[in-house]
Amino acid sequence: MAGNMNQQAGGLAGVNSDRLFLGSCMALIATSVAFAVIGDIMGPLKTQFILTNERVGWIGGAALWGFTVSIFVFGPLVDVLGMRNLLYVAFLGHSVGVLLMIFASGFWMLFFGALILAMGNGTVEAVCNPLVATIYPKDKTTKLNRFHVWFPGGIVIGGVICFLLGQANVTSWQLRLCLILIPTVVYGILFFGQKFPATERVQSGLSFGDMVAQTFFRPLFILLFLCMMVTASLELGPNRWIPAILQAGGIHGILVLVWISGLMAVLRFFAGTIVHRLTPTGVLPVSAILAGVGLFWLSYADTVAVAFAAATVFALGVCYFWPTMLGVVSERVPKGGALALALMGGIGMLASGSIASPWMGRVADKHLPDRLDIVATKACLEKVVAQFPALKEKAGKLGEDLVPAIDAAQKVLAAEKQSGALPHPDTANALRAVIGSKADSPLVKEAGDVLNPADNYGGRMSFRFLAPFSIIIIVVFGAIYLTDRAKGGYKQEHIGS
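Above: the chain's sequence. Below: its structure in token form.
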């Protein structure tokens, strides 16, 4: 154990850095497996609890804003509440959230279970980033990259296991949720009884007020904070949409996402070599170039070969964004401490979930009509209006699921009769209502055959419109890199300087 125990004088004396790092990685695996599993069980939840699409959306959405709430609330309080105590909070969040969902009797238990689970995820991010930076003060960016291997890595693990369970006809969504508990129990054991260091800020004697001042009144941090909104949006925004968009084009989008996540995990593991060669501010503009090219190429992904080739370039681009941005903040604004890291993680998740993802949806809606077959669409909706009322009566209580499709189709056809044109986005929503009704009718497939090519095209256009935002990162960090070179190279700041 001598090699594992860090016996440095000062704040790291007696701290088992390797064990704390391993525990942090397992906690991040629990977080990423949760992301994969929640996405996988949305369909079964809707069926079992007879939920509307809107209510399912509320359950899935809690995974984003619950994460953001906890990282904003607990991140600035890491020094006050202590890393150990907050990791116990994360452990409770993961455990209670999963159990609440497993034993749910309806929407509200599912919703609050997902919210508590998400808050556990955010607490992990709030605590483990400053923990890793503290236990490896001389190698922050490399270690943060290796820590963040396990976000895409966990998505691969969770996604593959869910896929294999499906192939084996194991349909229990409760069993899928239990997958989250495995890494949760492991990180609980790894952290139990361990000595946790004070953060670098506390060890150096820097006051909370100084940390706040160094965060909010340091121009470099403000610039990095704004750039994090862009890099996170370039990474997480498309990753949210890739499965659905490619699936609409007949490509297994979930497998493309697993491929992207697997590549990101491998590349982050070897981040030390890349970062040392290019430095963090050199890595970021190169990453932005590849991310922009990959996104633009994905907008042409109408075959499996093009999808995987473009996804590979995209993964090469975005793999270092999140951890390297955190590394730059930790190394260039060290006095910002846990507060600065929490704000970076929080704004990244908030921007991607509340700005980038909805904006991509709006772009997709705008361009969807360009590929919508008007004649086939009208014919499909006319048959829905003619046939679904009888299906509704035959299905009894379950037939209520057909009402939204009937109402939407009637509304669209009435508008078309009055104006001479099918209204958008009401037309696409009517087709989605038909598909979502899961009626025992060939019209469900017919609606999908009409809508999917248009949905795929609109979604691919959203990739194309997002790609140019990479230019912002290329310009900003290209300028910082050149400035660093002019001053003798990239230099890490130390909190005591």
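The longest helix spans residues 337-367.
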